[in-house]
Write the structure tokens for this entry.
Amino acid sequence: MPLHTESFVQGLIDQGISHLCVVPCSFAKFVINEAINNPNIEYLPCASEAIACSTAAGLKMAGKTPMVIVQSSGLTNMGSCITSLLNPYGVQFPIVTSWRTYKEGDSEIQHKHLATELPELIKAYGYEHEILDNENLDNALAQIKVIGQSMKIGVLKKDSFTKVELLPEHRLELSAYTPRSKFLIAINQAFACSDTSFVGTTGNVAREMYSFMPETKNFYMAGNMGGALAVGFGAAKAGKNVVVCGGDAEFVMHMGGLTTAGRYAKDINLTYVLFDNEANKSTGGQNTYQTHLNYIGIAKSSGLNCHEKMLTDVQEFADTLAAAQKQGGLNFIHVKCGEDPEPPRPPLEVVKQNSF
């Protein structure tokens, strides 16, 4: 039997854990849900794993007792923080990462390397790994306590926790917005067989592009979350016409891509479309908690030519995208959209196609 999630989180609280600094992973979905539901622990969603680690370090040095939860592919983003902040300053708190497995044809390709090499990565950071006991609650909580006081990183296996649903007040309500698939279908109709290249960010954006944009030239970026704009910028700087299809969680992970591309706004033909569904959909649908952000304002201040209002209408979006690509330069379009059912992953041979 998996660990009883409510009891696990209560056990963390009893140990004094004050904050969960998290970049969502589906393996930890139910722990995240319980942390959001429980008023006695604070859930801090972070833009990247490096931010989660640095935030936890600040909390610890200020007298709090944080815990970090990330997924294995994102542990690489924490490397600099772990090796150049935690290690030399002796800052310790529990770090737990999922260990994503890999099965040919049934897993995201970004997990293939760390499916076998995660222990070696943790070792390279100067830590040991300890697999969390997912059958005995007392053992698991004891492990968390030890991990938080030693040079260890906890490793979380799949299906370790019982199901916890978000309380109604914490659930997203996006039924008023058009599902993203409708916008992608419009892109497919407008750009079928054109020379425009489309870059889909990791997660459901790329998966939905595979399902709903079969007649366009697509690159499905299965990993490297936050890097879609930079990949598109590189291709545009090489002379290609590019549209990057991103998401709200992806937008904030590596915003240096915005400022870098913005330096060359007049030299390229690239449109960055932000599909904003307020959620980390592919890792369990967790709220990104980013409604405080002015995406258009951030993009504009980074040097992008922005459509001045958020779009919700499919036809208006299609017209705006066509006009942006026609005028050239570096453009930004913010689209508010709803959700679609979980789409299938593109086949591995399609994902590996890497030519624009």
Q: What stands out?
A: The chain is about 40% helix and 20% strand. The radius of gyration is 21 Å. Residues 314-327 form the longest helix (14 residues).
